[in-house]
Amino acid sequence: MSFLTPSPATGGYGLGFAAAQFNRDYDYGSGPTNQLAALGQAGYFTSSASNLHLLPALAKASDTNVSLEYRVRSYLAANCAQCHRAGGTAAALWDARSSIPTDAAGLINGPLRNDGGDSNNVVIKPGVPANSMLLTRISSPGSLRMPPIASSLLDTQAIALVSAWITNDLPNYQTFPEWQLAHFGSTNDPVSAATADPDGDGARNALEYLTFTDPLQSTNYWSIGIQYSGSSPQITFPHLANRSLCLIVSVKPVAPSVLPHATLTVVRIPGQVVPRFVALPGPPGQHAFMLLEDVIRLQLPTLYTGYEIVSCHAIRVTRDAEIALPRKTAADLLTSVEAGVRERRMGDAVRLQYDADLPAPLLAMLVDELELSPDDLYAGTGFTAFSDLFQLYAAVDLPRLKDHVLPPRPVPAFEGAADIWSAIRAGDVLAHHPYHSFDAVTRFVSDAAEDPRVLAIKMTLYRVSPTSPIAQALTRAAENGKEVAVMVELQARFDEEANIRWARALEEVGAHVVYGLPGYKTHCKACLVVRQETDGIRRYCHLATGNYNVRTGGIYGDFSLFTCRESIGEDVTELFNMLTGYTRPRRFRHLLMAPTGMREAFQQRIRREAEHARRSEPARIVAKMNSLVDRTLIEELYAASQAGVRIDLIVRGICCLRPGIPGFSDRIRVISIVDRYLEHARAYYFHNGGHSEYWLASADWMPRNLDHRVEIAFPILDPRLQSQIREVLEIQLIDTSKAREIQIDGSSIRVRAPEAPPLRSQERLYGLVAAESRTS
After folding, report:
1. Does the active-site annotation cover 612?
2. For residues 525 and 546, is the Cβ–Cβ distance under 8 A?
3. Residue 134: is it exposed, middle or buried by C-beta count within 10 angstroms (0-12/13-18/19+)?
4. Annotated catalytic residue: which of 523, 612, 680, 687?
């Protein structure tokens, strides 16, 4: 089949319509007709239009019945593939044809021939629209505009579509080979092929991949669940996937029929494929949405022809995500985690959320089927699955209702330096993310991977994204012949699959991959780079309070320390010797490590402050953490308060300490800050008689961190950096916008300063970082 189009001058392709654009129905006045069939009948083809269902088809940008990725790829195919293709005229390095898989098209983190003056720019950068040049080009008027035809108008629908794809979908993007490895352990096994249907549910692997369903569970696909035993309908439920919103529908036939019938069915809401919020038409400036489940409710009569809808209620099941692991050898651990991840989908139900007016007989049946207790039941009439609200945030373009954009700032010490190594040699460098760009951390590892003077890289990986540029850099380092040792924590909950994929990928290129100490979860964040320099071998270290994860690096508040102090380098070397060889480290010069003494070290420092207070000397503690649960340290804080120590705690999450009790904890103040960025950093300050100590750590003061994980705390030794941390803590302690203060009874109240404008600490901190960048 071919279109009657003029021969193109270049590229072997016409700047006209493609068959895939016409392969859909259109009403020409006598009912819907496939456009290709209609054009064929009109004589526009050199051969007949047959087997149309086997031909490619592009989706409309507005068709929310298909995935966001499919709509974006359809837009690119229609508007860009004429030039952006093998043999095309475009100088770019990516392919817009929809037949090319996304992960093979050069789109995601794809290189550019012209980066627009910013080395951070790529074709598409997951989660970072500002560094996605494709979005920049389609959003720009004039000569920069692409596609170049009709460049005086911007396609606002396409811009919103591509932006939503970059922001919402791509940070967790999983390639088809990664999906094959996650489900089948191989990309070559015939059962993992795109055309295979290993679970026999009628959906091939390619479709299961696009619809986020399980290729090994025949009950896990979007359909109406009516089950029969012989010719008799049974009230038997299909597997209800973890955290999947469903409608439980009671029906009754309206006319006699020889066919079997059911009285109860389940409709799974396809929230991973179709947006949860369906936009409704309205006047300019107004935005109206309808929940997807409500749209489906209205359409139930068309789904159940021949039935009367008796009732319809929403339910949502949460399943146990715990993985039971027999700790033996590393190989046993890897196999056990892989099996546990697969079995997690079938985990025991631990919670049922349901509409409050769900009939009692149906609720009783669900309780019986799911083996739940009364404590597991949560009735409600409000909104379920709050994470879906991110879709609504992205769908509405109302800047006045959103936080203003705060683009991450570069780390001043690295700007203008000859290279990152000379910048670190000039002095310790502190970064405060996400105010400082996480690119500084990525650059540290990427530059090490490419630098011919770097001999070795050792690193811990706790939570790794599927498209992690840091893991990619480690892979390149191994391919470049460097010694690469990576401690991959396989038990990082809900990130196990990505960690397993990267562990295997690193092993394949020759990296030394270990999985931690038996019985302990490795939670510390450390990277060691060994570099040959003119005056000998030097060790460069990166130590952090947060994960090596680009996505969380843009929304979590964390600290990073870059240093080449020899004494810290020796400590970090000892740490990796222990993690990779199970040796017992010699006494650390600086680091505190759990589970071998971190609690005792902090306990000793709290007691030291108490002694200063008893001698009527200045004494103060400021501790910032995610959660405060450890009984030993809480009791030490109580004793220090009674001795006269002023104690300020910034605890975002669980706090088991009761402040303000007269004569007991009245010198302790506890606040929690919940704002646009997740407060994730752990920082500890002790006045120490004027010789102040500042510590950053991967650990909270919780038994799980101090007893059951490998954690580190590291000191900030440079007085200049100590002042920076002190300033961060003091600003957060005077927050009067997003802070809440915990009361004696455990409740909390908003902190307000009626006589002064509200102080929002995160915005104040960003302002300081921005000012620092401007003056550096």
Report:
1. no
2. yes
3. buried
4. 523
